[in-house]
Amino acid sequence: MTDTTQTEPIENTQPLLQLNARVPDFEAKTTHGRIRLSEWNPDKWVILFSHPADFTPVCTTEFIAFQNIADELAKRNVALLGNSVDSVHSHIAWVRNIKDNFDVDIEFPIIADLDQKVSKKFGMVHEASSDTAPIRAVYVMDPDRRLRAMVYYPLEVGRSFDEFVRLIDALQTVDEEGVATPADWQPGDKVIVPPPATTEEAEKRLENPEYDVTDWYFSKKAI
User: Fold this and answer.
1) How far is CA 12 from the centre of its chain?
2) How far apart are CA 135 and CA 155, in angstroms?
3) Residues 122, 86: one domain?
């Protein structure tokens, strides 16, 4: 017999966050006290990230990794903010456990999102993966609290942390220089000059000695 059973599609009830739009504001309890996102570190970039659960091995390695890049992020005016649906007491106990077992002090706050208000506002709970635990999501916001990048990882795969530092460098370079960055760009590499918008500009581009011109639409320069 042919199995005619159909799987019900999972309705997507998560909000659609848009790059360059302002993120939803929230107030929440954290391991550093209550915060409101719009008022917390108002002059800094923010990396808000979610983890599935406290006292789990992959998340433990990720918290250590976030703390290991915290100084580099601070040099770039970036504050870290963690989030999961565990209680503040669970967060505190886990932070103490990481210190005891790995001799790492977790210095950034962790949101206790027991009611999933933050997780649902940011679309962190993907029901096809889990209807309770957030996925491994990362949201990069500028000081205006505009969403500049978001990265999702599945529950089973730990994140690559060097990429978050590189991503901040690229975003800040784009803002400061009015350029774009090519694939695998690293600080010190040439950047991409926005393509010309008119035929006259295209002609001038080919003659500009400051640019490394491959073709009229593809030019790089050093900064």
Assistant:
1) 21
2) 6
3) yes
> pTM, whole model, 2 decimals?
0.88
Q: Are residues 113 and 215 in the same domain?
A: no
Answer positive or negative: Cα dihedral of 189, 19, 36, 155. Answer: negative
One domain, residues 103 and 147: yes
Do 135 and 216 lie in one domain? The reply is no
Give the residue numbers spanning the domain of 207.
Answer: 178-221
Residue 108 lies in a domain: yes
Distances (CA, A) of 1 to 4, 6, 75: 9, 15, 65
Q: How many CB atoms lie within 10 A of CB 8?
A: 5
Q: Which residues are catalytic?
A: 59
What was the pLDDT predicted at 23?
96
User: Which parts of the chain register pLDDT below 70?
Assistant: 1-15
Q: Check residue 132 and give its pLDDT.
A: 74
Pair (97, 153) in one structural domain: yes
The three-state (H, E, C) secondary structure of 35-62, written as one string: EECCCCCCCCEEEEEECCCCCCHHHHHH
> Counting runs of H as helices and runs of E as strands, what totals does the chain give?
5, 10
CA 160-23-194 angle, 5° bins: 70
